[in-house]
Amino acid sequence: MRTALALAGIMVTTAMLLDMVLLAGGIERSFAQLLLGRGYQLRISPKGTLPFDTEATIPGAGAIRDLIAADPEVAAVGPMLGGAVYARQGDSLTTLFGYGIDPAAQAIYQLESGADLGPADSTGLLLSAPAARLLRAGIGDTVTLASGLDPQMALAGVERRLVVRGMVRWLYDYRGQPSVGTLLPVMQSLAHARAEDRVSVFVVRVHRDQQAEAVTTRLRQQLPALEINSVADLVIRFRDRLVYFRQLSYILGVISLGVTVLLVATLMTITVNERLGEIATLRAIGIARGTIVRGVMLEGALLTALGGALGVGLGVITARFLDRILTSFPGLPAAISFFVPEPRSLLLAAAVLLLTGILAGAYPALVAARAPIAATLRTEAT
User: Fold this and answer.
1) More confident residue, 224 or 370
2) By CB atoms within 10 Å of each CB, which of 150, 206, 308, 313 scores lowest?
3) H helices of the chain, where?
């Protein structure tokens, strides 16, 4: 019973350690995978902001796009405009988030059903699943988008009737966000940004990943008024915003290792004290002290390994449960995951846990090795 309880304790602490290892770097890896999902390594946004972080926009998008595309290392440039739009449903208006995109160079959605927009499809519309449910619309239906509302009369300044071409998953949407997408010129008309050719962000893909930083440096020199970041830069800024998750994971990870040491050391010390007579007998018939020490430390390592193996399954279950809670934070992209496994981190955690079990058996092994043979046997005999 005592061993079973110790194994249960090790299982719980192992699950905690596994979850903290996944949490420590998981969100950064998930964020990087999200940004690189379509192969675009650079983001260009208004100065002092992150993409879609504010309502600030970049004027003169056409000239800037030509300048970026002139770099020999640049493979594609995708301008995008984001902002609030409204869908008319009878006498009421439904608030949506609208994306203006260039289908030939886009990095923010994946087509799930239907057809993508063509380069000249000025009447086409893409819907996310939450938007489709909210509007009760499907492929082939007509949706009226509006903008420029008069707050007193509730009248729209601009209206466009668009036909749903496809259902898509917008990569940066938070869970349940109703979003729509159309060609950039259409969205610019709805946002009254057509005259100044404004966009929210440019995404840039370079031919070779290793050239991303060099292209970033050159573009910063050519476009000093804009914020230009590689994916690596954005990951660092994202990490700074969520530094408390990393700190929490380190603290709880250290606590879990400390509890494992105490559990294994306590159990092995009690076990050794109960078996001193057996150990003294082995020593009396010629078993070396080193053999006794290795046996006790090996027993501690095996106990830790068994409890750790059981803890992996518990850790996976709790990680999924915690991930659902954390990813429900408002404004966080639904594609982000806080617990992302990485083979190197998992192997390091397993090695540290096993080493912890071995070291936890050091004190009980020392007690066993230093037990006086004659006195112990006399005590056992009486």
Assistant:
1) 224
2) 150
3) 2-35, 61-69, 129-135, 184-190, 212-222, 231-241, 243-274, 276-284, 289-326, 343-360, 362-369, 373-381
Between CA 143 and CA 127 the distance in angstroms is 10
Spatial separation of the C-alpha atoms in residues 33 and 17, rounded to whole Å:
24
Look-up: residue for tokens 């059903």? Answer: 113
Domain count, the chain: 2
CB-hemisphere CA count at 13 Å for 89? 14
Provide the domain limits for residue 120. 78-204
Q: What is the four-CA torsion angle of 51, 57, 59, 64, rounded to 10 degrees?
A: 0
Query: Would residue 233 count as lying in a domain?
Result: no
Q: Do residue 23 and residue 117 come from a single domain?
A: no
pTM reported for the whole predicted model:
0.69
The CA distances from residue 147 to 89, 139, 159, in Å, are 14, 23, 7
Decide: 73 and 196 in contact? Cβ < 8 Å.
no
Query: What is the C-alpha separation between 110 and 23, in angstroms, rounded?
Result: 27
Residue 224 is assigned to a structural domain of this protein: no
Same domain, 256 and 183: no
pLDDT in tens, 193-205: 777 888 999 999 9
Distance CA(133)–CA(125), nearest Å, equals: 15
Q: Are 100 and 109 in contact (CB under 8 A)?
A: no
CA distance 99 to 51: 12
Please indicate, yes or no, whether residues 93 and 190 belong to a single structural domain of this protein. Answer: yes
In a domain, 283, yes or no: yes
Residue 122 tokens read as 């000025």
Give 330-363 as a DSSP string.
Answer: TT-BTT--S----HHHHHHHHHHHHHHHHHHTHH
Looking at the structure, tell me whether residues 259 and 334 fall in a common domain.
Answer: yes
The answer to whether residue 153 scores a pLDDT higher than 50 is no
For every residue of 287-318, DSSP letters joined together read --HHHHHHHHHHHHHHHHHHHHHHHHHHHHHH
